[in-house]
Amino acid sequence: MAKVSTQRFLGCLERSKLLEPAVLQKLVAQVNKLSQASPQKEPSPEKIAEYLVSKNLLTRWQAEKLLEGRHKGFFLGKYKLLDHLGTGGMSSVYLAEHVLMKRRVAIKVLPHRRVGESSYLDRFYREAQAAAALKHPNIVMAHDFGEEDGTYYLVMEYVQGQDLQEMVKQQGPLAPEKAAHYIYQAALGLQHAHESGMVHRDVKPGNLLVDASDTVKVLDLGLARFTQEEGGEQASLTLEHNETVLGTADYLAPEQCLNSHQVDHRADIYSLGCTLYYLLSGRPPFNEGTMAQRMVQHVNQQPPDLLELRPELPLELVKLCRRMMAKQPEERPQSMQEVAELLLQFLQQAGVGSGSSGKLASVVPGSGIGSAPGGVRRRVVRKVRRAGAGAALGSDPQLGQTAQAPPGGGEPAEPLAETRTAAGEPSSLAPTVSLPGGSPEGEVAVSVSPASSGPSAAVPAESSGAEAPRVSAQEVLARRRRARRNQLIVLGVLVVVTLAAVGAAVGVLMYAS
Q1: Is 238 helix (H, G, I), strand (E, B) or coil?
Q2: What is the side-by-side order of every strand in the sheet holding 142-148?
Q3: What is the C-alpha to C-alpha distance for residues 179 and 317, in angstroms, rounded to an integer?
Q4: What is the pLDDT of residues 277-302, one digit of tens each?
Q5: Pairing of the two strands 142-148 and 151-157
Q6: Nearest of 418, 413, 414 to residue 469 by alpha carbon
């Protein structure tokens, strides 16, 4: 940092307009009086800055900028910038205060260099439009949007707290009830966004803020996709700007790896499942390899078993996490409302909370189920009560969960096939898919074998002497079709990543030449 003289510091302070004229005049008079008495007694700019910070006339960030000789960039419209909160790939975020109302807000600023780049400005507009359309206690609220001298900014609710990614980095994996409570709140906020016709497309721990009262706030709608525009046409910035894949690789749904502008709300359910996995394990589902390799893993591999990473985790919560992360969208819970119901049911069965008289404060101080919107909470509680205390968290073929009736009633899902171990535990049949080349004529070979459940050999549900249930030909064909689709997705991901790499290389060569 370049050292500035006392007089230059006072000049920057005057031009910055951070102090009231009367306060500044009094300060300058005191400094001049000391300087005239003895040049050696003239206070240093650092000492003056420290004094102003101690009197709450400047913030530490403002003082540091003034000591660097800067006097611009402290105001945006009606807001005075107080601190720099962080910088992401698309924008910077500042803590600010309304000049007249003295209300503290967070301001997201789009850098000048981004205004003319591709879809950055359009995406910034889209985030402002999306945030303005949503009003929910679990979504960060937008207050204003503006532009000043080519600087575009979005004024949002200031949430004093930390995001879930930082929380896990500092504290390690969370208690299952605490993790379930946070994901429950996020599901409520995202359900509201989905009902408003938006898909977030970038759900991850870093985009879920927890405030001082342990309320979760969903933020960063910069990648939000409006499912319906006027005239009924689907809209997506990814399509308009020829951007095929958007999102964060560690939390990307399989279908989003291939084409982001064709996904629906179930992609957010997958990403929220990956976020739950992170809260419970302290790591993303796939944390090794390049971005392209992680995307391929999301398409055709299962992550390490949570029960192997943390054997003490409740089986019901692990099953729900796996169901949310199912490769096929139709195998996941079909709405965030359903996810919230299942998580609330888990919390009630764990004795953490029930309805408006919940006991969540014992797990997360200052929080409670009652923090959810009243109408949503009452609807969830009624559905859970109808489902009964013993209802399961839904089917999970990989872990051997049998199909159960959904919380709201209706027909149970049809299990693919089921055997029972000698101990009487259900054990589902898991398909094993091999890529072309392992079978004649390039066919995708699908072999079905009972999943092991320990040293006991699998036996039929009725008796150990009967034949195990057979898989129908239709089911085998369906699995072949799904396997072919997975192959196409993998190939598509590889093609997209390769083209992006080639394009970047060409750009570098052109720039160098």
Answers
A1: helix
A2: 75-76, 79-87, 92-98, 104-110, 151-157, 142-148
A3: 10
A4: 999 999 999 988 888 888 888 988 89
A5: antiparallel
A6: 418
pLDDT per residue over 300-317, tens digit each? 889 999 999 999 999 999
Residue-by-residue DSSP string for 251-286: G--HHHHH-GGG--THHHHHHHHHHHHHHHHSS-S-
Instruction: Share the mean pLDDT of the chain.
Output: 74
Bin 364: left if φ > 0, else alpha if -120 < ψ < 50, else beta: beta
Catalytic entry in 202, 250, 268, 396: 202
Cα–Cα dist 225/245, whole Å: 13
Specify the residue for token string 């790896």.
257
Q: What is the pTM of this model?
A: 0.64
DSSP bridge partners of 146: 153
The upper half-sphere exposure of residue 71, i.e. CA atoms within 13 Å in the direction of its Cβ, equals: 12
Tell me the C-alpha distance between 398 and 221, whole Å. Answer: 33
> Is 202 a catalytic site residue?
yes
User: Would you state the structure tokens that stand for residue 428, as one six-digit string?
Assistant: 């589902």
